């Protein structure tokens, strides 16, 4: 990677006629992205990971010898000899030989089933071996070791031990308290972590069967990956008489020169002031130093900040600056939440003014800001804890404007050394108005990608400062935001996608603008979504009124309001599932999902369900899903009110309501909150005097509790407020924005929404209520309309010229007395 | 590791330049295909996605298999355009492919799909297969 970066930098900085580059590489692939190596297991190929295709080298005049390492260097004559017998002279020689895995001297490490984790070939061998392995182990609990553990999980070996010699995981990056949190997080994912553990032997005859530890305990293992660190590849340097360090590494000076001034070493093979840099960003910096030295610029390498942020097996881990500063030099502020698995530590200078370093585990969203604050020696706020805890008390979110406080020379992208001012210039002078455009212009965000959120904030900030109206337009076909389109479509009474495109857009439309526009049409008029040519503009699930699943079959979810269902209806679901051979599962929203339906069976399945009194559950739509309820006062000895009846009433009221994103509700009959209503878009909780109404909660990837809108209200008031709130959300939210995100982005937050909904500050409450009433009055079950219409039914077949035939490529496999879709590739 | 070094012949009728013989297969009637949408056509043992782009008054045909996760789904995808070039988005993960030359239009992706000729006579829609037809396996596998 570093060698490739050297070529790229030399090509841009020097005149192409003045040099010639010849590359010898041991591996058969051109340079590839080792940082994302573990994505190989998530289906990426060697080509996906390559830094540049082979013809990139050719078209830039670079000769590439792959699978042919240099075997000898004649420093006197300045000639290299390759393994396959090629001889080339050089003026300057760059060694970017990288590193190999360090394998500790453990007896038995040559047994079958023992792997190292370093190259694409290693990964290919692991993949084929893993098919017959059940119990895995990793030696090494550092960064690479945990990457390897992720690979084991991806390969299906969930029973895996991670064995670390030192007392904690990631000893170079995080402190012991952070490591404990990381350990317990990883353990909840099924990994078994052994720290302070020294492997004394690998057991087994030919193949590994187990591991023996220094304390005489042992475990059973049939596949082991050793990832205990790196060993610089300095053999060729040593052989050529260049100085190498006592523990390996080619000794270089500040110009990256080895003891022979015509030979340079960069990347993980180079030893600079006793340090080996095992990260990509310093390697790129070294490449830049050599390029500058070659074109006679003065630039030196003066060490590198080893701050890093990673996502390890889904857990964010970051460390920056000096993470281990001791108490005598600084004050340490620690935040720890064991139940959520979050640990944050910052080290603040004695005078409280500057940030020296820190560690983040479990939640690292503030990493970029903290790193910048630390690197640029920015003055901390009076309460430094605010920077990891956020300002508290008023419930308001911090704004993204914090990027404006950064100095111009703050390095935003450390992989490519791009500063804040370069990014702002790309926007102001380069005319870049998207993250992709900035990536192309500055290369920021093209390395590890960690800085992209900050690049986006900077872009929006710069555009605003330049007086540009920043607006979230849908795509190239519409120059309007969703809210503008909603108002315009209503004003012009447009009823179909084509009418909207003709009146307000240009071109042919695309998958970005079609779904939001037909969703607006449905929110405005609530007409059958598959008519007026709107069928092919619906997102795929809406088009077939079912959820497409792996393999191309669909799942069917009838509405079960409030989760209440009669035995008779349960029997019908069972009979239908049996007849059409469907996999059944209870959903999180208290209903029953039936999977594996062929597209051509959908109308018949629904006919039987509708005959039994079911309606569409709209599980496929951006619309109301379920209103979950606890059993309430009819049976429960604690219940204050009848939560089931109220949940049914509300679900019946809003069923079929199309919205910018899906909507979920909950009703709990007492403060115990068994319906988990506060995790929903609206949650209603019984009190002694009536109901408390909470809004804008969210489960999902970023859980957020709903906030109190009104307390102790009666049922009619509750429904009135819900009408207004939901309609206000539908009219003003961006596409695919859940209510929680909508609220977070709204100036004034919950107070503003309460003013609009409860106090009618905009004077639109009556309008919102009557718009909602129109939608409720227009409700029809979509599936009933399809079942009753031969024209609509015709679209539910796989082959247009053989409608009675099913897709022959669909495959199922048995699973616990039912079936599952065959795994895709 | 699979390498996809298919030699692609441009077969869209607007810009084709084919001298070989073409087999025309009767797919369906015009009315069988939804406006601005697609259907799947069974051709021998293969599956072809056929699209009627009414806004442009154009017809397109491609393989039905999305090469990303190898799902038979492109005919159920949404069609549209990017900078004026017609495209289809797979319903599974929204990978988009040019309907003109079949290349993947998402950045950093180099998979591609096959495209076929389409002709319309009266109410009938035909899909054209160039030359000796020995590529079923590739479409189907």
Structure explained in plain terms:
- The complex is a heterodimer of chains A (825) and B (141).
- Chain A has 26 helices and 38 strands.
- A five-stranded parallel sheet of chain A has the order 8-15-9-10-11. A five-stranded antiparallel sheet of chain A has the order 21-22-25-24-23, sandwiched between helices. In chain A, strands 32-33-34-35-36 form a five-stranded mixed sheet, with helices on one face.
- In chain A, a hairpin with a 4-residue loop joins strand 3 and strand 4 (79-82).
- In chain A, helix 1 (2-13) packs parallel to helix 8, helix 14 crosses helix 16 and helix 21 (715-732) packs across helix 24 (765-777).
- Chain A is globular, with a radius of gyration of 31 Å.
- Chain B is mainly beta and 141 residues long.
- Chain B has a single domain, classed as Rieske Iron-sulfur Protein (3-layer Sandwich), CATH 2.102.10.
- In chain B, the strands form three sheets. A six-stranded antiparallel sheet of chain B has the order 1-11-10-4-3-2. In chain B, strands 7-8-9 form a three-stranded antiparallel sheet, with no helix packed on it.
- The longest helix of chain B is centred in the last third of the chain and has 5 residues, at 136-140.
- The chains are: A alpha/beta (825), B mainly beta (141).
């Amino acid at each position: 990677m570093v060698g490739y970066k050297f070529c790229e930098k030399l090509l841009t900085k020097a005149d192409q006629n003045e040099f010639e580059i010849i590359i010898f590489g041991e591996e058969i692939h051109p340079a590839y992205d080792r940082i994302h190596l573990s994505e190989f297991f998530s289906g990426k190929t060697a080509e996906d990971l390559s830094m540049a295709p082979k013809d990139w080298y050719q078209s830039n005049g670079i000769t590439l010898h792959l699978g042919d390492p240099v075997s000898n260097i004649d420093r006197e004559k300045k000639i290299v000899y390759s393994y396959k017998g090629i001889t080339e002279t050089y003026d300057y020689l760059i060694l970017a030989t990288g590193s190999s895995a360090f394998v500790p001297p453990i007896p038995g490490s040559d047994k079958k089933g023992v792997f190292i984790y370093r190259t694409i070939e290693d990964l290919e061998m692991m993949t084929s071996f893993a098919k017959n392995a059940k119990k895995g182990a990793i030696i090494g609990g550092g960064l690479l070791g945990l990457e390897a553990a992720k690979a084991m999980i991806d390969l299906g070996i969930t029973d895996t031990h991670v064995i670390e010699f030192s007392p904690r995981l990631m000893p170079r990056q995080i402190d012991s308290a952070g490591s404990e949190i990381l350990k317990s997080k990883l353990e909840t994912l099924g990994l078994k972590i052994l720290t302070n553990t020294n492997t004394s032997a690998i057991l087994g005859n030919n193949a590994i069967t187990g591991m023996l530890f220094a304390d005489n305990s042992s475990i059973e293992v049939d596949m082991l990956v050793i990832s205990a660190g790196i060993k610089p590849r300095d053999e060729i340097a040593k052989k050529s008489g260049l100085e190498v360090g006592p523990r390996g590494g080619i000794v270089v000076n500040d110009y990256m020169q080895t003891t022979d001034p015509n030979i340079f070493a960069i990347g993980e093979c180079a030893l600079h002031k006793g340090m080996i840099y095992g990260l990509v960003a310093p390697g790129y910096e070294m490449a830049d130093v050599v390029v500058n030295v070659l074109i006679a610029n003065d630039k030196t390498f003066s060490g590198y900040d080893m701050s890093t942020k990673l996502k390890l097996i889904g857990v964010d881990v970051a460390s920056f600056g000096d993470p281990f500063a001791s108490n005598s030099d600084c004050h340490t502020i620690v935040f720890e939440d064991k139940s959520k698995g979050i640990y944050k530590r910052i080290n603040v200078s004695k005078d409280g003014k500057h940030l020296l370093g820190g560690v983040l585990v479990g939640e690292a969203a503030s990493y970029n800001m903290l790193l910048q604050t630390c690197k640029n020696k920015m003055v901390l706020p009076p309460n430094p804890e605010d920077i990891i805890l956020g300002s508290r008390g008023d419930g308001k979110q911090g704004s993204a404007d914090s990027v404006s406080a950064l100095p111009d020379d703050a390095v935003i992208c450390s992989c490519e050394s791009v500063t804040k001012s370069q990014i702002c210039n790309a926007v102001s002078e380069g005319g870049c108005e998207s993250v992709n455009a900035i990536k192309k212009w500055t290369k920021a965000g093209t390395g590890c990608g960690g800085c992209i959120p900050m690049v986006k904030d900077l872009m929006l900030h710069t555009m605003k400062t330049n007086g540009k109206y920043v607006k979230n337009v849908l795509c190239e076909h519409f120059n309007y935001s969703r809210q503008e389109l909603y108002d315009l479509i209503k004003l012009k009474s447009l009823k179909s996608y084509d009418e909207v495109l003709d009146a307000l857009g240009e071109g042919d439309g695309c998958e970005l603008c079609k779904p939001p526009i037909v969703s607006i049409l449905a929110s405005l008029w609530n007409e059958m979504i598959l008519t007026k040519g709107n069928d092919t503009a619906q997102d795929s699930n809406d088009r077939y009124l079912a959820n497409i699943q792996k393999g191309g079959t669909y799942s069917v979810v009838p509405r079960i309001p409030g989760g209440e269902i009669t035995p008779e209806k349960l029997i019908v679901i069972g009979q239908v599932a049996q007849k059409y051979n469907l996999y059944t599962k209870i959903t999180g929203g208290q209903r029953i999902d039936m999977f594996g339906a062929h597209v051509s069976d959908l109308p018949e399945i629904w006919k039987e369900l509708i005959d039994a009194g079911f309606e569409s559950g709209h599980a496929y739509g951006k619309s109301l899903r379920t209103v979950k309820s606890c059993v309430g006062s009819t049976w429960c000895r604690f219940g204050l009110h009848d939560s089931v009846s109220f949940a049914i009433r509300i679900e019946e009221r809003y069923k079929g309501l199309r919205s910018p994103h899906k909507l979920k509700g909950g009703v709990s009959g007492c403060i115990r909150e068994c319906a988990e209503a506060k995790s929903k878009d609206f949650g209603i909780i019984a009190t002694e005097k009536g109901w408390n109404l909470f809004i804008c909660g969210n489960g999902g990837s970023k859980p957020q509790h709903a906030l109190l809108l009104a307390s102790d209200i009666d049922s009619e008031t509750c429904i009135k407020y819900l009408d207004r709130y939901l309609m206000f959300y539908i009219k003003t939210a961006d596409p695919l924005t859940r209510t929680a995100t909508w609220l977070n982005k709204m100036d004034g937050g919950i107070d503003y929404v309460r003013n609009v909904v409860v106090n009618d500050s905009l004077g639109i409450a009556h309008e919102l209520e009557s718009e909602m009433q129109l939608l409720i009055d227009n409700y029809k079950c979509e599936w009933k309309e399809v079942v009753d219409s031969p024209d609509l039914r015709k679209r539910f077949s796989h082959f247009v010229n053989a409608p009675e035939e099913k897709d022959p490529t669909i495959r199922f496999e048995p699973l616990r007395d039912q079936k599952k879709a065959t795994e895709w590739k | 590791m699979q390498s996809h070094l298919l030699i692609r012949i441009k077969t869209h009728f607007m810009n084709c330049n084919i001298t070989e013989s073409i087999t025309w297969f009767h797919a369906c009637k015009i009315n069988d295909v939804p406006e601005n949408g697609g259907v799947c056509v069974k051709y021998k043992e293969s599956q072809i996605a056929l699209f009627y782009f009414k806004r442009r008054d154009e017809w397109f045909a491609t393989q039905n298999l999305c090469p990303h996760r190898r799902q038979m789904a492109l005919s159920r995808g949404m069609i549209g355009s990017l900078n004026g070039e017609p495209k289809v988005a797979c319903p599974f993960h929204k990978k988009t492919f040019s309907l003109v030359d079949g290349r993947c239009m998402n950045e950093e992706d180099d998979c591609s799909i096959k495209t076929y000729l389409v002709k319309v006579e009266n109410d009938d829609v035909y899909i054209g297969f160039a030359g000796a037809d020995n590529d079923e396996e590739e479409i189907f596998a």
